[in-house]
Amino acid sequence: MRVAVLGAGGIIAPAIVRDLAGAPGIDGLTLLDLDGAAARRTAAEHGGGIATGAAVDATDRQALTLAIEGHALLLNAASYRVNLAAMDAALAANANYVDLGGLYHLTLRQLALSEAFAAAGLLAVLGCGAGPGKTNVMAARAARELDVVEAVRCASAGFDETPPEVGLAVPYAVHTLLDELTEPPIVVAGGVPRAVPPLTAGGTVLFPEPIGARPTLFTLHSEVATLPRSLGARACDFRLALAPAVESALREIVAAGTAASDVATVPASPRTWSAQHVEVHGRRGGAAATVTLTALTRPHQEWGLGGGVISTASVAATTARLLGRGGLDGATGVLPVERVLTPEVLFPELEARGCIFTLHVGDIGGSP
C-alpha cells in the first residue's frame, strides 16, 4: 500500500513517517507539504529509503488529487483547517483517509461526508492522534468496566525535560493550539452541548509522573463531538494542561491579539513526555463508580524523537498499518477512531512504542 502524508514538514509527521517506513504492507510514502523542502527533508531523515517529498497546496483540490492518485491512503497531518479539502481530494483520488482531529465543529462537518465515502467503498477515520485518538479508545476501554456510562472526562498534558532556554516550544501546531485557547470550548451536560468561555479553568488533574498534578483549561476538542454518542454518555468534556511557561507565553499572545502566523516557535527537545488522563463516571453493580485510565509516553531514544510527537503519531501510524495489512477491511464511511480501533488492537501497538497504560476502577465515585 502506498501512503501519502500531508503536512510532512510539520511537528508530528516525522514520527509518523519513521513509524511507517519499512512497516509490513507499506510499499512507499509520498510526503507532501506546502514547503516542499521541508517534505523532502523529512523523507531524507525519516523515510527509510521508501519516501519522496514534494510541494503541494492542500487547498488546491486538483493539485492535491493529482499528487495522491495511485495511493491507497491519504494521512493528513496538516492543519485541521484543510481537513475538508483533504477529504474531498481523497474521494476524488479513490483513497482512504486518516487525520489527527478536527476541533469539534469541523469534526461534525466531516462526519456528514460518511455516505459519500461509504458509496465509494472508502474509509475515513477521524481523530487518530493522542487526544483525540488515544483518549477516545481509552474512554471506550474504561467504559467496559461500567454497567451504565454517565460522563466522560478527557485530559492531556506534556512535559519537556530539557526545554529550550530561548523561544517558545509548543507541543503541536501553534495555529491549532491558539484556536483551542481562543475558541469557546464545547462541553456536554445533561445531553446538551454548550459553549463555555475560552480559558475557563478545568481543575487539577493528576497525570502520571514525571508530569504529576497539573491545572487544566477547558479547550475545544473533537472527543466531545463523538464520545457521548459512541458511549451513551450525557456529559463530556476535554481539558488541556500546558507547561506553566508555555501557558503564560500563549496567554500573552492571546491577550495581544497576535496572529498565529506572526508567532515564532522553536522545536521542543527530544526529551518530551506525553500523558493522557480519562475518567469515565457511571454505575457499576447498582452503585456510582469512576474508572480512570491513564497513558504515559516516554521519549523515543532510538528515533531521537520526543514522547510528545510519538504519542500522537503512533495512533495515526497504527491506523495506516492496519489498513495496509487488511486489518480494517469491510469498514467504510466516515467514523471516529473509537468506532474503528479497539483497545486490543491499539494498545499493544502503542506499548511497543513506549506507552504505559494504567487502569483504576473506583468502588464509589461522584459525577464531575
Give a description of the structure.
There is one protein chain. By secondary structure, the protein is an alpha/beta fold. The protein contains 12 helices and 16 strands. The strands form 3 sheets. The chain has a 7-stranded parallel sheet, with helices on both faces. Helix 1 (13-20) crosses helix 11 (307-324) and helix 3 packs across helix 4 (83-92). It is globular and about 55 Å long.
Which spans of ≥5 residues are poorly predicted at pLDDT below 50?
364-368
Largest sheet composition:
7 strands, parallel
CATH superfamily of the largest domain: Dihydrodipicolinate Reductase, domain 2
| Count of DSSP-assigned helices | 12
Q: Helix/strand-derived class?
A: alpha/beta
Distance between the first and last residues' Cα: 44 Å
CATH architectural category of the largest domain = 2-Layer Sandwich
- Share of residues in strands: 25-35%
- How many structural domains in the coordinates? 2
Give the overall shape, derived from the CA principal axes.
globular
CATH class of the largest domain: Alpha Beta
Keywords:
single chain; 368 residues; alpha/beta; Rossmann fold; Dihydrodipicolinate Reductase, domain 2; 2 domains; seven-stranded parallel beta sheet; seven-stranded mixed beta sheet; 32% helix; disordered C terminus
